DNA sequence: TCTCATCGCTTCGAATTCGAAGCACCTAGG
DNA sequence: CCTAGGTGCTTCGAATTCGAAGCGATGAGA
């Protein structure tokens, strides 16, 4: 951990990219969240979950898959899926091949909500994020961020660290 | 609001950029938050607040300025500044020229914590965000995101909407 | 087969977040 | 000077988040 802190300070350019990234995503997410709330009564997380399920070929995913896709804690996921289930937008069922697992599936109502919310979502996305830059910039942005994302995914075991080694890192 | 929903669906490229943005910032923030917590017992928000104050020429800012810079709600800001004050990292004092305003100032202890946390912060930043791409890509990323950010800042009045007209939007 | 460490998910309590309402102050109009 | 409306921040209650602990199921080794 404290192997070689000997690193040069980031340039202004690097810091600028970092700050801009944080602020843009923060602002964008905030605005989208409002839109989702107004139109479909969804939080951003709930939308992400529904969208992830909607993307799945069968509309079904395991809890763990959802957790990984959304970066949130397992307990938070349980909570949100619970809300979605109570709202009738998803259904939970025990996984067939593993009695401990839980499969989550979008319901038709869930797909309806998704469809209802999407246009507004896109509109905000366009207005805030896509409109101000040309398509070349978008392509570049996407390419760079994708590289970073793939790199990040490789580095840390996100949602499933070793449960608890009997020796801490110290 | 529903003036012309007639918009073409986003291309795969555009969606990719959007998703990558959300995931990268989410992952990055999450990891940085862990680092900050371990080293300085700071949450990301607290770090942002301290850093913002540290950047200010006099180490002092108004509450509202802080809220704008960090995008959070006013009440949340009050809460966090309260925590920082209790920890002795910042000091609150009534603004000189406006009795209702509150000036927040970093203390020496606050600057110490900031200094203690910074190297780790940078290390994570490098490892996750800067290392995987070359400096051209970083420059491009920063430029594009800055354009978007400036655009976003112009659009919505962030933390201080009209208090409440006597007629809602409905 | 039996045993035990591990895995997938949920429950629990604590911390953080937000919006609405409230309080004190400022500022313009009479 | 007095009043009315707007501004800056805080308080309050509800909702969401997380990590740690708990529970049943799984699977590898004896």
From TrEMBL, chains A, B:
Gene3D superfamilies: Winged helix-like DNA-binding domain superfamily/Winged helix DNA-binding domain (1.10.10.10). This is MarR family transcriptional regulator. It comes from the Bacteria. Residues 14-150 form the HTH marR-type domain. GO terms for biological process: response to stress. GO terms for molecular function: DNA-binding transcription factor activity. It holds the Pfam family MarR_2. SMART domains: HTH_MARR. InterPro entries: HTH_MarR-typ, MarR/SlyA-like, WH-like_DNA-bd_sf, WH_DNA-bd_sf. SUPFAM superfamilies: Winged helix' DNA-binding domain.
């Amino acid at each position: 951990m404290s192997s070689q802190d000997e690193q040069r300070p980031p340039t202004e350019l690097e810091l600028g990219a970092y700050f801009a990234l944080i602020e843009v995503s923060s602002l964008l997410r905030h605005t989208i969240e409002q839109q989702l709330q107004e139109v479909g009564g969804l939080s951003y997380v709930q939308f992400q979950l529904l969208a992830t399920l909607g993307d799945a070929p069968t509309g079904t995913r395991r809890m763990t898959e959802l957790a990984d896709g959304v970066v949130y804690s397992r307990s938070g996921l349980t909570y949100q899926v619970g809300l979605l289930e109570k709202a009738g937008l998803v259904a939970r069922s025990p996984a067939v091949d593993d009695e401990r697992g839980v499969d989550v599936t979008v319901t038709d109502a869930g797909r309806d909500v998704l469809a209802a919310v999407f246009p507004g979502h896109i509109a905000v996305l366009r207005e805030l994020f896509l409109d101000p830059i040309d398509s070349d910039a978008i392509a570049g942005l996407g390419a760079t961020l994708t590289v970073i994302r793939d790199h990040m995914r490789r580095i840390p075991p996100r949602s499933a660290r070793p449960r608890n080694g009997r020796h801490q890192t110290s």
